[in-house]
Amino acid sequence: MINIEKEKKENNIIDLKVTIDNEKVKQEYNNIYRELSQKVKIPGFRTGRVPINILEMNLGKEYIDQQVAEKLIKDSYTDAITNSELDPIDVPNIDIVQIDKENPFVYKIILEMRPDITIPDLNDISLEKNIPTVEEKEINDDLERIRESHGKLISVEDRPSKMGDFLIVDYTALVDGKPLDEGKREKQMIQLGDRAPKEFNDNLINLQPGTEKEVIMKIPADAADKDLAGKEIIYQIKISEIKEKELPELNDDFAKSIGDNYQNLAELKEHIKKQLFERKKYQSETEFNETLMEKVAEKVDFETPEVLVNKQVENMMNNLQEDLKSRNMKLEDYYKIIKADEEKVKKEYRDIAKQQIKKELIIDKIIKDDKITATEDEVNEKINEIAQSTNQKPLKVRAMFEKNNTLDNLTEQIKREKVFELLTKRIKVTEK
């Protein structure tokens, strides 16, 4: 027989005291003695015939107690959690209180629970919501970017280089008079303009194919690469070819070449307009929802669980390291650049993490209290929306979610959207 007692402590901690009666304990000790007698080889005793006192003398009473405790906990732990009707937010800890073959077995399960959250009246919150509009210039700018991406490079022979040109060059990079490792390249493409270093734009303009030119670039003293910081790199460059981008004419044929779904330029522009509107709408709603949750969080008072905050900080630190790794930067160098250390960064992350966890717990509470769900029809509708905005077929979009095992994420997104719709109805909203 199992007896369970609840004991509430501070900071949403609950102890479950689990007591297993002595008969069950004795039975388990006998089972363990029998198993060990079959496994353990002790000189002078046949397998399966080793007396209990000899087993305890050779293996130690603590070892046998531990084997019994592990088996009793394994057999009772799940039922204890389920019967207690508690929903812990982290893996519970276990403390053994009493283990002895002549007495009941007693252990405690220490659980950290979700905090008790009460959502107050929100009608005193007033927020302004932006209604997105799309200007003709924005459509034309996007259309020009598409046109630019479909341009073709053609060789130029009747003029010198100018801004916007693509130069095919061979170069050698020198530091302190010596070539850099892998600093020699042939047939490299450089586009003069915003993306090129100023030194290249200043020195590689008004030149003919076949021209050789030296370009000196000063590396900042605080550069991440300490071997090059503060030094000069001399690029010995030879221009072998000049190319310019020839853009297609904006007409119905161009629209048809973009994809099978556009019959003319007007249809392409309409699609661009829809995409721009959806992008702006998403941005506006995201900013509104973030502000809304900040206002709601200010009105809801509860102790944010430390275990969740600590895990969020750990995730944020891991993401930081992965981001720095992708940029070939060490964590130590990053700390020097921002004039901080790990302790300071973690403290700043902790404040952010605490607010993030608080908002997520509030959202979870509303989902639970209002029994918010996402139906299969709603999931299909969301897939259709994504398909339309990305100009794909719904089946292809669903297949992508299924392949990445992210359909559950889509379900959660729908539930969260319902939470924001619900909260929006409880506050005062003005539109502009």
Considering the chains and any ligands shown, give keywords for the structure.
432 residues; alpha+beta; 4-stranded antiparallel sheet; 13 helices; 20% strand
Question: The biggest beta sheet, please?
Answer: 5 strands, antiparallel
- Quaternary state reads single chain
Number of helices: 13
What is the beta-strand fraction?
15-25%
Number of beta strands:
11
**Separation, N- and C-terminal Cα atoms:** 66 Å
Dominant shape:
extended
Mean pLDDT: 91
- pLDDT < 50 stretches: none
The run of helices and strands is EEHHHEEEHEEEHEEHHHHHHHHE
Give the class from helix and strand content and strand pairing: alpha+beta
Over all CA atoms, what is the radius of gyration?
34 Å
Helical proportion?
40-55%
Description:
The chain is built from 13 helices and 11 strands. It has helices at residues 22-39, 52-59, 61-84, 136-149, 198-203, 252-258, 265-299, 306-326, 331-338, 342-369, 376-389, 394-403, 407-425, and strands at residues 2-8, 13-20, 93-98, 105-112, 126-129, 152-156, 166-175, 178-191, 212-218, 232-246, 428-431. The longest helix has 35 residues, at 265-299. The mean pLDDT is 91.
